Amino acid sequence: VFFLMIRRPPRSTLDRSSAASDVYKRQVSTQSTWGFQEDIQSMAGSGYDYAVGMLSPEGKIYQIEYAIKATENSSTIIGMICKDGVLLGTEKMILSDMVVPGSDRRVFTITKNIGMVITGLIPDGRHLVERAKEESASFLKQFGITIPGKVLADRLGQYMHFNTFPFSTRPYGCTVIIASCDKITGPGLYMIDSSGQCYGYYGCAAGKGRQTARNEIEKLQPKNITCKEGLFYLAKMLCKCHEEMKEKKFELELSMIGTDTNCEHSLVPKEIAKDLDAKAHETLEKEAMADVQPQISPTSSHFHHQYLE
């Protein structure tokens, strides 16, 4: 009896797919001479960013940090409490001349006395707007009164936090600012980030120009001015935050809530917003010229030296 022995090729090869070959491929890919694989893993969270419920050795949740990063690269939003109310504002990029002005809304009315502005991933923000409206309607049906701004901010923060630990969900890639005003608690301002953290503020900002806006708010002290006066300063802040991208067109979207509006949230008309935008640009240009003019004044020694030559 003759036995024909045929040697089978190894199962763990690079050109065949199997459970063992997958392990083999991973072993080969990590044995890089120049350490490229290690560099890629370090940039991607060292393997701790695959799920939102995974903590890194440093105590970080990378999925939440990625969501916050999405808001930091988005449009700037600002909210500040004035003497007689609260102001909200944002600057929106005009992506194309074919886009209808005003179709990409960022400022919304939740109830008569509550407004909200969003930044980051806009579809995520619009979903949170609808959720806020549902919470407001449920509170009114259950208790018979309009939901206070602080209660709505806490509930919305908890709702956003619930998406930071189940494996099947992801954090919301947006930040929202809520403004409220009622005759009992007065004006209120709250900001909620992707992790669900909610704090009350006298003035706050989010987006790519957040640091510039925060510095301007601290210098302005908005609690000493009225809402009508603060609209110009709000437009000026938004225009100043947009100076790094002057070549791109944008439009302002502003709103206010206070005694002038009978504690009802109302959007600033487009014509007034355009006028404020033009005045803000004119003021910024004058300030820039004033900063440059002393450097080339006739009294400077450099000017006399060039003139004598």
Structure explained in plain terms:
The protein has 309 residues and is an alpha+beta fold. Helices cover 40% and strands 19% of the residues. The chain is built from nine helices and ten strands. It has helices at 19-30, 36-43, 62-72, 122-143, 149-161, 210-220, 227-241, 270-292, 301-308; strands at 77-81, 85-93, 107-111, 114-120, 174-182, 186-192, 198-200, 203-206, 250-258, 266-267. α4 (122-143) packs across α5 and α7 (227-241) crosses α8. Mean pLDDT is 81; it is low at 19-43 and 296-309.
Count of distinct strands: 10
Low-pLDDT regions: 19-43, 296-309
Question: What is the string of helix and strand elements?
Answer: HHHEEEEHHEEEEHHEEHH
Q: How would you state the average pLDDT, rounded?
A: 81
Helix content: 25-40%
Could you tell me how far the N terminus lies from the C terminus, measured between alpha carbons in angstroms? 112 Å
Class by alpha and beta content: alpha+beta
In DSSP terms (H or I, runs of 4 or more residues), the helix count works out at: 9
Strand share of the residues?
A: 15-25%
Let me know the largest β-sheet.
Answer: 5 strands, antiparallel
Shape: globular
Rg of Cα set: 27 Å
Spatial arrangement of strands, main beta sheet: 8-1-2-9-10
